[in-house]
Specification:
This protein is of the alpha/beta class. The chain is 29% helix and 24% strand. The chain is built from eight helices and 13 strands. Helix 6 runs parallel beside helix 7. The longest helix is centred in the N-terminal third of the chain and has 13 residues. The protein starts with 8 loop residues before the first strand and ends in an 8-residue tail after the last strand.
Length: 255
């Protein structure tokens, strides 16, 4: 399948929030070097002028394996390809599907070359807007049960609650998934106070950005405004509010 005349290359690029000023220099260089850019339609549109002059392969949500397969095929044919993800490609992004496809093709680790270019994750962007909520041990949990059974998600939520982790919830709520966020809230309330601060960030560093700070008790009242472009950051037992910001001390001694 490989093209012996030219070695292809695959860049797994995190676009961050999407605005050029939050794109790393390495990501910009990878996009410039690439012949082809493959990605979810909304992310391709989000990148806009950054992709001028490139061959674009745009697909819809749910076609992650198809996107990865096309990108790998192009790289095996000797092309330089960027597979773009919102945020960081290695955090709920396209790195996983690409490696899955490569694994199925018995990739030799050399041709095509594969390089991951990190980006600002949704969790990092949300934390920056909220203040300093991720100063102790924290975890990210996706509430989407499209690829992960709810029983596994529930187990992770319980472990995070018991371990007093700050929790960043990805994919908290969608048109077809209405109940998972409130179930996560119920699990967390078994182990922490209803006054625990909760930060809700929608469209971080994008047009329409919204930042809301509430607590576990107040989360239910505003749940309907939460969607797939929202990251929910739930504090631990030491997280506090300061002048409209949400912060967690660096250690428990600072409580």
């Amino acid at each position: 399948m490989a093209n012996d005349n030219k070695q292809g290359k695959l860049y797994l690029v995190g676009l961050g929030p999407g605005e050029a000023e939050y794109l790393t220099g390495a990501a910009m260089s990878a996009l410039r070097e690439s012949d082809v850019v493959v990605g979810f339609r909304a992310y391709i549109e989000q990148a806009g002028d950054l992709l001028a002059g490139k061959e674009l392969v745009s697909m819809e949500l749910g076609q992650e394996i198809e996107r990865a397969t096309k990108a790998v095929e192009l790289a095996y044919a000797g092309r330089v390809v960027s597979v773009v993800s919102s945020g960081d490609a290695g955090i709920y992004g396209m790195s996983g599907p690409v490696f899955q496809v490569l694994n199925g093709l018995d990739w030799d680790g050399h041709n095509p070359q594969v390089e991951t270019v990190p980006g600002i994750s949704a969790m990092q962007a949300a934390a920056a807007l909220l203040g300093a909520p991720l100063m102790q041990d924290f975890c990210a949990i996706s509430l989407s049960d499209l690829l992960t059974p709810w029983t596994a998600i529930e187990q992770r939520l319980k472990a995070a609650a018991q371990g007093d982790f700050v929790v960043a919830l990805y994919n908290p709520r969608s048109r077809n998934r209405q109940w998972q966020l409130m179930e996560a809230r119920r699990i967390l309330l078994e182990h922490r106070s209803g006054k625990t601060p909760v930060g809700i960030v929608k469209d971080a560093f994008r047009p329409g950005q919204q930042v809301t700070i509430t607590d576990l008790d107040g989360l239910e009242a505003i749940a309907e405004d939460i969607n797939m472009v929202t990251t929910v950051v739930i504090g631990n037992s030491t997280t506090y509010l300061l002048q409209g910001h949400m912060a967690t001390p660096r250690g428990y001694r600072d409580k």
